[in-house]
């Protein structure tokens, strides 16, 4: 029997499609200023350090506003929380486009708060409303869309700015938030149809008395229902390891995202438009990693995937340091790695949590701490470049962050199957 959300709203693609449109708004607004940062600095008289704040502030909000986001999700439901996220991103994008330094920074902070809510709630929605065999795929689609959003804004901002100026170029992306809002509202209307089967629909419903753990017993998987309450994230060693690994990933990603256009302009002589277009390779190749990791996860243990991701990630800072003329190759390898890095960490989180509340807390803790580390990336890279006049020191710091992802991540995930 078909539920209340039958028809188009009941189609299996509705939830992933809505998540994709939402995800386009969860990274794109952050990277939008990067291709036109030179114009912004000239018009508003910003220093390199202040310009770095345009990427640092949203990521810092990811860390500092995570408790607020978790509170919003707990008090409201995930559907309303995600709708609120899009409204806040829309408002911040409009404010940020006003040609003043104060509006630029305030709007950027508002965008960061809105994205923070979306960051925390999406893994909860995926875990709750996606069947176990599709969690990895939907997670990969989600993280792919994050990078597609970054790619679109990286490619489109500079040409739009050339025609109508940078305020219009960074304001126009508010359209994506409006489209995603309508799509999410439509999907929520059919929520009952794309939820996982309820106990009344299952062939042999079982009473739920506690969180579910899976253990191996002579090659077979036994389902054990634990009676105890899940341990809080801060009391689990794996949580701290995942947080540091996520921090290494975030630091590297945001440092490079903020400054790749400028680096390519300085080192290779690309024009502003060409630098923005070239940096989009780093964003779009993340789709390969984001979709490839779920395929590997079906056969490989997470620690092996993290090791592979870190190995490929190293090509980006090392390659730009010693052979910047081969930027395309390093962007391909590094782009695929950064897409795979965030995906595998999300997959590990989904695998180790035992309930929706546990998923919310774990997602908030890992992302909050990780983004706190990551928020320093653009600021540190910009400050080091300003102090030294070249890109050697910034790239060496990124190298250390990537090594942190690889070493700490593989150690933390060593017992996750």
TrEMBL record:
Chain segments annotated as transmembrane: 12-30, 50-74, 81-98, 104-125, 137-158, 164-187, 237-260, 280-298, 305-323, 329-353, 365-385, 391-413
Domain of life: Bacteria
Record key words, sorted: Membrane, Transmembrane, Transmembrane helix
Keyword Transmembrane helix: yes
GO function term, MF aspect, one: transmembrane transporter activity
Domain Major facilitator superfamily (MFS) profile: 13-417
InterPro entries on file: MFS (IPR011701), MFS_Cyanate_Porter (IPR052524), MFS_dom (IPR020846), MFS_trans_sf (IPR036259)
Gene source species: Curtobacterium pusillum
Pfam families registered for this protein in UniProt: MFS_1
Subcellular location per the Swiss-Prot or TrEMBL entry: Cell membrane
Membrane topology qualifier: Multi-pass membrane protein
GO cellular component, one term: plasma membrane
Chief location category: membrane
Name of the protein in question: CP family cyanate transporter-like MFS transporter
């Amino acid at each position: 029997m078909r539920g209340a959300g039958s028809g188009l709203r009941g189609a299996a693609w509705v939830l992933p499609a809505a998540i994709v449109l939402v995800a386009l708004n969860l990274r794109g607004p952050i990277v939008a200023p990067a291709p036109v940062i030179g114009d912004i600095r000239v018009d508003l008289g910003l220093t390199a350090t202040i310009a770095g704040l345009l990427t640092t502030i949203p990521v810092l909000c990811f860390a500092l506003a995570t408790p607020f986001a978790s509170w919003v999700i707990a008090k409201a439901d995930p559907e309303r929380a995600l709708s609120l996220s899009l409204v806040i991103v829309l408002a911040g994008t409009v404010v940020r486009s006003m040609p003043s330094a104060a509006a630029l920074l305030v709007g950027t902070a508002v965008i960061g708060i809105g994205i923070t809510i979306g960051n925390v709630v999406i893994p909860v929605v995926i875990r709750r409303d996606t069947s176990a065999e599709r969690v990895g795929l939907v997670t990969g689609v989600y993280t792919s869309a994050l990078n597609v959003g970054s790619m679109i804004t990286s490619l489109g901002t500079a040409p739009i700015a050339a025609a109508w100026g940078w305020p219009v170029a960074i304001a126009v992306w508010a359209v994506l938030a409006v489209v995603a809002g309508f799509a999410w509202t439509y999907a929520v209307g059919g929520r009952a149809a794309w939820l996982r089967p309820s106990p009344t629909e299952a062939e042999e419903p079982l009473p739920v008395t506690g969180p579910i753990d899976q253990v191996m017993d002579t090659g077979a998987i036994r389902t054990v229902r634990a009676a105890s309450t899940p341990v809080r994230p801060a009391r689990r060693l794996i949580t701290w390891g995942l947080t540091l690994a996520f921090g290494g990933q975030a630091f590297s990603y945001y440092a490079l995202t903020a400054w790749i256009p400028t680096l390519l302009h300085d080192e290779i002589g690309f024009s502003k438009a060409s630098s923005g277009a070239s940096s989009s390779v780093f964003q779009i190749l993340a789709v390969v990693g984001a979709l490839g990791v779920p395929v590997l996860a079906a056969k490989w243990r997470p620690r092996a995937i993290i090791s592979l991701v870190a190995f490929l990630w190293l090509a980006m800072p090392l390659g730009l340091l010693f052979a910047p003329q081969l930027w395309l190759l390093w962007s391909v390898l590094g782009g695929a790695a950064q897409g795979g890095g965030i995906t595998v960490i999300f997959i590990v989180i989904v695998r180790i949590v035992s309930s929706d509340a546990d998923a919310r807390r774990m997602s908030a803790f890992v992302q909050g701490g990780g983004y706190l580390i990551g928020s320093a990336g653009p600021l540190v890279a910009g400050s080091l470049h300003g102090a030294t006049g070249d890109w050697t020191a910034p790239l060496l710091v990124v190298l250390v962050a990537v090594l942190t992802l690889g070493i700490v991540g593989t150690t933390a995930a060593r017992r996750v199957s």
